[in-house]
């Protein structure tokens, strides 16, 4: 004997199989705790991007098994059907679908009896309440409240509920009055199927900023390596040419090869050497132009008086100011022609 199956169940499963076969991406979402009105709003906002179908879990599993006959790997989604679920069909890729559904989540007040998803803490400070019965309600819920200078204040920070503990009715009422909304409500994507592969929630929850930072870091490292090993690409060729140009210019200046680019650097170097030499000569031996050039040149910092440090600084200064006879001659020649 075969069990009688209601015709509406057969029709519902057949309709879901058709939607699954037409959808590019199939997802299983958890709708537990989402109020009916909020669910309808979410469904309306996703109308052009995704279609949500709610059925009993047993019927969803049957539909997945039927659709898996034509789409290999789809049966892997059956394990994700747990709790109060719905099935989503969409053209969005799994990662975009996850972000789209995550954007539907909102903060809501606790009603009492829920499991806290995180530590719930109230901060010390003044409240908007006027002195009255509210003080007793706060204290009953464990909030260290008191009246100070005609105002209701919370005297110190206090964790009312730890993560994983149940939120009592008294605490829920107080949190609502304090405008603390600990519950996150929205569609939670358990898993998504795409082209034979199933992506679980832990894979889909990608931090965009961290992901882009890693890509930028990898790109920067690859570029540095390509330039270092002289591997030309459309991206590395520019810094490679700039590096080669800088090295060639440096070599030409040191080898005293005069050209349109090096001559300015060489003249600037000769001028600096000339000024260094002129600064060691008696003032009466210099003409007005040279005196003016010396007065306009940046002066070395004054040395502090006393101590061995002064002697060492003077030795260092003399060492830096010392120039060769060839450099001095070249400097004077540049000045006087």
Outline of this structure?
It contains 13 helices and twelve strands. The protein is an alpha+beta fold and 337 residues long. The strands form four sheets. The protein has a five-stranded antiparallel sheet, sandwiched between helices. The chain has a three-stranded antiparallel sheet with strand order 6-8-7, covered by helices on one side.
Can you walk through the features of this model?
The protein has 337 residues and is α+β, with helices and mostly antiparallel strands. Helices cover 47% and strands 15% of the residues. The chain has 4 domains: 7-105 and 186-206, Ribosomal protein L10, N-terminal RNA-binding domain (Alpha-Beta Plaits, 2-Layer Sandwich); 120-183, Molybdopterin biosynthesis moea protein, domain 2 (Alpha-Beta Complex); 210-245; 262-301 and 317-336, no CATH class. The chain contains 13 helices and 12 strands. It has a 5-stranded antiparallel sheet, sandwiched between helices. Strands 6-8-7 form a 3-stranded antiparallel sheet, covered by helices on one side.
